[in-house]
Design goal:
Structural class of chain A: mainly alpha
Number of helices of chain B: 15
Number of strands of chain B: 5
Radius of gyration of chain A: 25 Å
Helix content of chain B: 55-70%
Distance between the termini of chain B: 58 Å
Structural class of chain B: alpha+beta
Number of helices of chain A: 12
Largest interface: A-B, 61 and 46 residues
Oligomer: heterodimer
Distance between the termini of chain A: 7 Å
Largest sheet of chain B: 3 strands, antiparallel
Strand content of chain A: under 5%
Strand content of chain B: 5-15%
Chain lengths: ~350, ~375
Amino acid sequence: MLSYIIRRVLLMIPTLFLVSLVSFTIIALQEHFNGDFVSQLKLNPQVSPETLERYAKNLGLDQPWYVRYGKWLYGIVGKPTVDLSFPFVHFQPMDFGYSFEKRQPVGDLIMQYLPITLLITIPTFIFVWLVALPLGIYSATRQYSLGDHSLTLFSFVGLSIPTFFSALVLLFVLTNLGYPAVGGIFSQPYIAGSPWPWHWNWNKFVDYLAHLWPAVLVIGAAGIAGLQRVMRGTLLDILGSQYVQTARAKGVAERIVIYKHAVRNAINPMISIFGQSLPAFVSGSLLAAQVLNMPNLEIFYFQSLQPPDEYVVVTVLLFFALFLLIGNLIADILLAWVDPRVRYE
Amino acid sequence: MAVAELKRKKTRVEPEISEQPLLTPGQLIWRRFKRHRLGVLGSVIILLLTVLTVFADFIGPYAGDQFHQQLGYAPPTRIYFFHEGRFMGPFVYATVRSFDPETGEPSFREDTSRLYPIRFFVRGDPYKLLGLISTDIHLFGTGEPPDSGGQVFLFGADLFGRDLFSRTLLGGRVSLAIGPLSLIIILVLAILFGGLSGYYGGWVDMAIQRLIEVLQSYPALPLLLVLATILPRDISEEQRFVGIILILAVTSWTGIARVLRGQILAFREQEYALAARAMGASNGRIIFRHLLPNTMSYLIVASTLTIPGLILAEAGLSFLGLGVHEPATSWGLLLNAANNISALSKHWWLLIPGFFIIISVLAFNFMGDALRDAADPYASRGGGG
C-alpha cells in the first residue's frame, strides 16, 4: 500500500509539470493577444515609454515567456545555495514568484486567501454529505413513494439551477428581509484579524456562521442533488442483489439489512465520487463567492486574470490541480480501506 | 403422419412470427422514449424555446438595443382589459417616471389618463427575420415611439430602458445555440481522440491519455475562465461567439473520449471486428462501419446530457463577464446586470432570465434521462442514478 501511494505521488509530478506548462502557455497566448500586465499603462499618456520599459524590466516582462516559465519553475524546485554547513548544498524551494498587482510573494498571498476557501468549502462538504446520504437512503428504501418522487424532482431542479442564480435569489430575499449578515464572510469589525480559525473568539465565530449558511446552501444544493441521486441508484442496485435477499430470508431485521448490508456496500462508489466532488466545489464556490462577495482563493484567481498577473494565475491553477489529484488519491486509498476486495499492488 | 402434423404446425406458427413488426433500433428507442412523459415534456419545451428564440425579434416587441431614456429600470408593464369598468381589449397605461425630491431616486407610476391599446402585427423597430427578410412587423406592441411612455415591457426594463423580454428572447439564441454547436466539436474531438486511443493503443494511447489526464486535472470553471481571456478584445461579436464555442468544446470533450476509448477497446476484440479485419477491411472501415455504430446509443445519451452542462458553463462565463459581450446578449450576461446588490434589491425582474436557464437545462436533463432509459434495453426503471 505504501509503495502504491509513493508511486501515485511520484506520478503526480509529471502531470503537475504538464499542467503548469499548459497554464503558462495559455497565459502567454493571452499576453500575446491582449497585452501583458504593463500594457494597460500604455493607455495612460502621462506614462512615458521609458518608464514603461523600466517597469516591464522590473517585473521581468521584457524576457520571453519560456524564460519566465523556466525561472518560475526553478524557483519552485528550489535555488541551490552552497555553504559550509551539512549537506553543503541547500535548496530554498516553494518560491512561486511575485504578484505584479499585490507586490507580494504569491505563496504568501495563497496562504492569505486559502483559509477563506477552506472556511467555505469544508462546511459545504460536510453539509452535502450529511444531507445527501440520508436522503439517498430514504429515496431508495421508499422507491416510488411520494417522498421519493419529490426528491427526484428536487434533484433534477437542483442540478439545473446555476449557483450564481440561486445566490442572486437568496441575496435578493435576504436583503429585502433585512438580514444583516449578507455579503462577505465576516462583518466589518472582524475582517481586520487573521482568517485562520485559531485567531478567533466566540463572537467572530457566530458572525462567521451568520455569513456562512447562505453560501453553504447555495453551493451545496447542486452537490446534494447529484449525490442523492447516485446514492439512491447504487443502493437500489444493491437492494436487488441476492445477499440482501438471503439476509431477509433468514430473518435479519430490516434495519440491519439496510444499514449493515446494503448501505455498507453502497458506500464504495460514493467514495470514488468523493474525490471528484472537490473540483465541483471549487467551480461552484467561485460563482457563489462572486455574488456573495467572499474574498476566497477562487475570487483572487478570477481577479488576477485580467490584466494577467501571470505567476498568481499559474500558481493557483497548479494548486487547484494538486487539490484534485490529492482528492483522487485519498478517494482511492479510502476505497482500499473500506473495501477489502480492492487491492493495489 | 406425426411428421406431417409437425410440419403443418410449423407452417401454422410461421406467419405468427412474421406478423411481429421488425423494428430498427432507432424505432425501438423512439417507442420507449415516447412512454417517458417527462422526457417528452422536455423535448416539447426545447422545441418551444427554439421557436421563441429563432423568431425572437418578431415575437419581442422591441429591438434588443433600443434604449428608452425615460424608462431605465421600469418595472414590468401591467396589461389591462377594463378601463373604468368598460372592456377595452388588452391595453397598457402610460408609464411615467418621477424623482423623489429628497433622494433623487426614480420611481414609476401609471398615468391612467393615457391608454395605449396593444395591437398585433404592429410596426416597430426594424430587424431582419431569420437574418434574411428586412421587416419591422412585431407580433405585438403598442407601436408608440420610444419617448412616449406607452411601452409594453412584459419583463420590465434594464438600466438603459431596454426591454428585458425582447432581450431575454434574443439572449436565448446565444444560450441555446452554444450547447449544440460546441457539442458537435466535442463529438468530433471525442471520437477522434477516443477512437485513436482505443483502436491503436500503444504510444498513441499513452499520449492521448496523458493529455486527457492533464485537462481533467483542472477544475472546469477556472480553466474555462483562463482560456476565455485568450480571446482578443477587439474581435467581432460573431468571432467571440465562435471562440466561446471552441473553448467550451476544448474543456468538455475528455469525459466522452474516455468512455469511447473503453468501448472501442472492448469492441475491437469482438468476433465481428476480428472477422472484418480477417476479410481485409481497412482500419477506417472497421472503426467507422463496425465499432462506432455500436457506441451510438452511448453517444446520443451523452450528447443530450452534455448540453445542460454547456448551457450552465456559458451562463457562468458570461455572468463573470468573460463570455458574450455587449451589445450581444445571453441569459448569463443578462444576469450580470443583477449582480449588484443595490440594483437587484429594488428590481426583482432582473432575475427573470435565470428562470429561462433553469427551464432549458431542466428540459435537456429530462430529455437526456428519458433517452438513457430508452437507449438501454436492459435498464431497470429505478436504477441508474
